[in-house]
Specification:
This protein is 58% helix and 13% strand. By secondary structure, it is α/β, with parallel strands linked by helices. The protein has a single domain (2-29, 79-180), classed as P-loop containing nucleotide triphosphate hydrolases (Rossmann fold, 3-Layer(aba) Sandwich). The chain has a five-stranded parallel sheet with strand order 2-3-1-4-5, with helices on both faces. Helix 6 crosses helix 7 (134-148). The N and C termini lie close together (9 Å). Bound molecules: BIS(adenosine)-5'-tetraphosphate. The site of BIS(adenosine)-5'-tetraphosphate has 26 residues, from helix 1, helix 2, helix 3, helix 6 and helix 9.
């Protein structure tokens, strides 16, 4: 199964992605996790990504796309994968479609975790990651609305989109996702 998780920052993509890994036995590819690992390791790529992440902006496409391409080439993705946080823009979505067409592994489903902004701000302030201060959160929500939200139409037209209410208990949300898949 080849799945994309899309949703506002803090909508629970990482949280539910981990549960899907355990359920389906396929790997999760989180661009947020990959970028944070590069920042922590102080690699040249991490140094380039850090400023954008701290400001709540998207990291440059060439960096993110390169990371995903490298990860998808690893053999553990043969039975499927869960993409968490990628794509985040139309350009990334079009690149991903081309990449997967080349691998003859088109996406099966795109799950949209729907959570309102007030709940998101509450969750992220409670999480307290380095990029979870109020100004950055507000910026990330604007970036989401402008750059990522158009993906809902894009995948809707492909008849691959399933919108799931992302508020409530973790198990309830997980069951909704599995039902949608
Ligand atoms: P990400 O790491 O993708 O972070 P996120 O969107 O903030 O988090 P997620 O939706 O996974 O929420 P989580 O489960 O953690 O991105 C970080 C940054 O990396 C971006 O701002 C950007 O700069 C860069 N980046 C990443 N991908 C990129 C791309 N493709 N292109 C360009 N740049 C990219 O949940 C959040 C919190 O809510 C947690 O504390 C969790 O415990 C809690 N929570 C989860 N579910 C809950 C529930 N049901 N009820 C209550 N709390 C819940």
């Amino acid at each position: 199964m080849r799945i994309v998780l899309v949703g506002a920052p803090g909508s629970g993509k990482g949280t539910q992605g981990d549960k899907l890994v355990a359920h389906y036995g396929i790997p999760k590819i989180s661009t947020g996790d990959l970028l944070r690992a590069a920042v922590a390791a102080g690699t040249p790529l991490g140094k380039k990504a850090k400023a954008a992440m701290d400001a709540g902006q998207l990291v440059a496409d060439d960096i993110v796309v390169g990371m995903v391409q490298e990860r998808l080439a690893q053999p553990d993705t043969g039975n499927g994968f869960i993409l968490d946080g990628f794509p985040r823009s139309l350009a990334q979505a079009e690149t991903l479609d081309r990449m997967l067409a080349g691998l003859k592994q088109p996406l099966d489903k795109v799950v949209h975790l729907d959570v309102d902004n007030e709940e998101i701000v509450k969750r992220m302030l409670a999480r307290g990651r380095a990029d979870d201060n109020e100004a950055t959160i507000r910026n990330r929500l604007e970036v989401y609305a402008a750059q990522t939200r158009p993906l809902l139409d894009y995948y809707g037209k492909q008849k691959k989109l399933a919108t799931v209410k992302g508020v409530g208990g973790l198990e309830d949300i997980f069951r909704r996702i599995v039902t949608a898949l």
